[in-house]
Design brief:
single chain; alpha/beta; Alpha/beta knot; Helicase, Ruva Protein, domain 3; 2 domains; 7-stranded parallel β-sheet; 10 helices; 7 strands; elongated
Length: 247
């Protein structure tokens, strides 16, 4: 059965140019269990046009909403993800759909999430991109990055479905993580230990900033922090004995 959060995921096609592509999007949505499709200034089509591509998807077709303006189609969305074949450095962007999908599912637990796709020929224009909280690209062959509209929709919805299934099928076990206070003690003593062994050749702050990021990514447990603290203390004691011997 589709996840309840799927009802808060809205696929928005901005000025789709070909009824065949609209039908293929409907089919992709039906395959993945999504049902909310909004069309902004679409090419003329009939339900029969779509059913020739999306067999037995009458329920999705009956729910299609039509809009004259993109702003109206996005009015009740809390988070808008635009899609693009090329990088847009002026916008927050990602090409990691697998990591993005769980975030979107979490958002869709309570908010409407819109996935916005542009016209087949040119994609989203600047005005449409300005309405997006995030721009997502699919990692493709750089020499031929443009995907068919329905292919793009299918890949996005597949990742969302997998994210829901993983959340449902893999029980979340609690794992204690180190507190920020414990980490701060580790960073403080770690810096002291690195000074003691004359590790720093230049810019200790930059080195410690990198070490912080490594620790954060590792999501250390309290016992792991305790081990690293013990190593740091031993480094300081060893350096102190060395200094005594050489003085």
């Amino acid at each position: 059965m589709p996840s309840p959060c799927f009802e808060r995921v809205i696929i928005v096609l901005h000025r789709p140019e070909n009824p065949v592509n609209i039908g293929a999007v409907v089919r992709a949505m039906k395959n993945m269990g999504f049902g909310r499709l909004r069309l902004v200034q679409p090419a003329l089509y009939t339900p029969a046009d779509l059913l020739r591509i999306a067999h037995h998807a009458e329920d999705v077709i009956e729910r299609i909403e039509h809009f004259d303006a993109l702003d109206d189609a996005l009015a009740d969305a809390h988070f808008v993800v635009g899609t693009a074949a090329i990088h847009h450095p002026e916008h927050r962007t990602t090409n990691d759909l697998r990591s993005l999908a769980p975030e979107l599912i979490q958002r869709a637990a309570g908010d409407n999430v819109a996935l916005l796709f542009g016209p087949e020929a040119d994609g989203l224009d600047r005005s449409a991109l300005d309405r997006c909280h995030l721009i997502a690209t699919i990692p493709t062959n750089p020499a031929y990055p443009a995907l068919n509209l329905a292919q793009s929709v299918l890949l996005f919805l597949y990742e969302l479905r997998i994210a829901v299934q993983c959340k449902a099928e893999v029980p979340l076990s609690h794992q204690a993580h180190a507190t920020q206070a414990e980490l701060e003690r580790l960073f403080q003593l770690g810096e002291e230990a690195l000074h003691a062994i004359d590790f720093f050749k230049y810019n200790p702050a930059a080195v410690m900033r990198t070490l912080r990021q490594i620790a954060y990514r590792a999501e250390l447990r309290p016992d792991e922090v305790a081990l690293l603290l013990a190593i740091a203390r031993q480094m300081i004691r060893a350096a102190s004995r060395r200094d005594v011997r050489t003085s």
